Amino acid sequence: MAERLDSTPAPQATPDGHAVRAAVVTGADSGIGRSIAVALAGGGVDVGITYHRDSEGAGNTAAEVEENGVRCAIRQHDLTDIPTSASVVDELADELGGLDVLVNNAGTGSAELAANMDFDTWRDVLAVDLDGAFACSQRAAQRMINAGRGGRIINITSVHEHAPRVGAAPYCAAKAGLGMLTKVLALELAEHGITVNSVAPGEIATPMTVQHNEDPTVRERPGIPLGRPGHAREAASVVAFLATPAAGYVTGSSWSVDGGMLGMGPQAGSHMETNDWRTP
Questions:
Q1: Which own/partner contact pairs does 88-96 have at CB distance under 8 Å and 24+ positions apart?
Q2: How confident is the model at residue 14 (pLDDT cuts 50, 70, 90)?
Q3: 32-260 homologous superfamily
Q4: What is the mean pLDDT of residues 215-224?
Q5: Local confidence band at 214 (pLDDT 50, 70, 90 cut-offs)
Q6: pLDDT-derived band of residue 5, with 50, 70 and 90 as boundaries?
Q7: Is residue 8's pLDDT more than 50?
Q8: What pLDDT digit, counting tens, does each position of 80-129 carry?
Q9: Which of 105, 142, 211, 256 has a CA positioned 20 to 30 A from the CA of residue 227?
Q10: Average pLDDT value for the chain
Q11: Active-site annotation holds for 249
Q12: How far lies 41's CA from each of 1, 15, 188, in Å?
């Protein structure tokens, strides 16, 4: 069954009060992207989704979206092929009859010390996580400006937009860059009624964290104040809020969804008892 979020009101609207009709969510074949697509659909929004390799996963997302009585369009998307692949934003918008919300969710990472990393690995992560989000945002912004209806751009970053992690140099650099790009676009697009924000998840139980369809409440995380990983729905609910009229005066902000993880710096420094953290 589709994941419904009680916190997702319908209909949604852009900052100027127009009803949201169509959204595009990149990397929506699983995890947070799937939950975002379903959450937006729960508010009566037609959703275009992209995937890289998992066509079956994209089909499953589409089925959940359509259970909400809305349309879903699908495109394959390779963000290492930039800027060409950003054309899927236009293709999906054309199929859905417009574009009110773009969610840049697609991403990748690495687990290797920077001193040992080859340049291609560095570039591939930057291409997907930063270049791809820029190219898609540019396409979306141009469409929204031309339509004159305002809109929303929501970038899925990470707690590593704000804090580093050993073994994740390109990921952290890309997410920090995307966080600052969010702030710049928020300033540049405000006059067009387009808000731009980032959502920064911590540990979320998804395939990316090697937690496939697991209940996060059963995993203990002493280093996280709430004591557990998050559920993809919990990140999606914040994205859904940012696409509602209630968030019409919110732009250029980063919303951490991390169970309090980012507040643990001094506590982690004084209470960690091994050097295990030095190894990715």
A1: 88/50, 89/24, 89/136, 89/139, 89/140, 89/143, 90/139, 90/143, 92/24, 92/48, 92/50, 93/22, 93/24, 93/48, 93/140, 93/143, 95/48, 96/21, 96/22, 96/46, 96/47, 96/48, 96/71
A2: low
A3: NAD(P)-binding Rossmann-like Domain (3.40.50.720)
A4: 83
A5: low
A6: very low
A7: no
A8: 888 888 999 999 999 999 999 999 999 999 999 999 999 999 999 999 99
A9: 105
A10: 91
A11: no
A12: 13, 19, 28
Closest listed residue to residue 29, CA positions, set 18, 21, 20, 37:
37
Name the burial class of residue 269, with classes exposed (0-12), middle (13-18) and buried (19+) by CB atoms within 10 angstroms of its CB. exposed
Contact status, residue 33 vs residue 105, Cβ threshold 8 Å: yes
Q: Catalytic one among 51, 134, 171, 255?
A: 171
Buried b (16+ CB within 10 A) or exposed e, 186-218: beebeebbbbbbbbbbbbbbbeebebeeeebee
Residue type, 45: V
SS3 call for 23: strand
